[in-house]
Design brief:
The chain is 29% helix and 31% strand. The protein has 232 residues and is of the alpha+beta class. It has a six-stranded mixed β-sheet with strand order 7-10-11-12-13-14, with helices on one face. Helix 5 links the parallel strand 12 and strand 13.
Length: 232
């Protein structure tokens, strides 16, 4: 029995040593990231003193509650070999940005600030007509007019759903919305029937592509379905 226990202890020690020394992390592959660098992704995963061990990083991410990363929807860690892992990234989509203190403040579909920088990210519309009391990264936008945020977020998400990317989205003084698509301005009106208006916009845009003018959707309702385009 004593010899058996010694053998078990020796085997456990060998396995522990292999686990510690044999899984030294030498290579990290990052995929799926477009807005953020490989370095930023690695730092969010390899964030403690034991992260030099590939097996530890893999098991930690699989077995324990994951630390929330503000600009990431989800991350998956795969163990490719004893010395290599792959981090697969699913980034949060940015639906718009405002300019504050000469900085571009990007926010996600929930209205949380995910980046404050001077870079211009292609495909993210600028939102005008709103003022922010204070901008803090990873916190929700604090607008002067609180009701503006849910309206802008719904509008931006619906545009994104159909692949409609305006240059700017305007929240007007009369609490209505409009959007500029190059030479075409779209008047949306207030938040009533907003989802249906964007659906209608999606079907009309191919018909007026290349033209210049104003598309009026502000008076659209399920009963008053007339839409008119005023050439400029």
């Amino acid at each position: 029995m004593l010899w058996f226990l010694l053998i078990v202890l020796c085997l456990a020690a060998v396995m522990a040593l292999v686990g510690i020394k044999g899984f030294e992390l030498r290579d990290v592959e990052v995929t799926g990231n477009e807005l953020y660098t490989n370095k930023q992704i690695k730092e969010s995963i390899l964030n403690d003193e034991y992260s030099w061990n590939a097996l530890y990083v893999f098991l930690k991410h699989r077995l324990f509650e994951k630390k929330e990363v503000p600009f990431i929807d989800e991350m998956e860690v795969e163990l490719l070999s004893m010395h290599k892992i792959r981090i697969r990234v699913y980034e949060k989509a940015m639906v718009g940005y405002i300019v504050a203190n000469d900085q571009n403040v990007y926010f996600d579909k929930d209205g949380f600030v995910v980046e404050i920088s001077q870079r211009l990210i292609e495909g993210v519309p600028r939102v005008e007509g709103i003022q922010c009391n204070e901008v803090i990264v990873y916190e929700k936008l604090d607008l002067d007019y609180a009701d503006a945020l849910p309206l802008i977020l719904t509008f931006s998400q619906q545009l994104q759903k159909y692949g409609l990317v305006p240059e700017t989205v305007m929240f007007n003084k009369n609490q209505s919305l409009s959007a500029d698509f190059g030479k075409i301005t779209v008047e949306i009106g207030d938040g009533e029937y907003l989802v249906e208006k964007v659906m209608r916009l999606n079907s009309i845009m191919p018909m007026i592509s290349g033209k210049k003018g104003v598309l009026h959707l502000e008076n659209w309702t399920p009963l008053t379905t007339d839409v008119f385009f005023a050439p400029a």
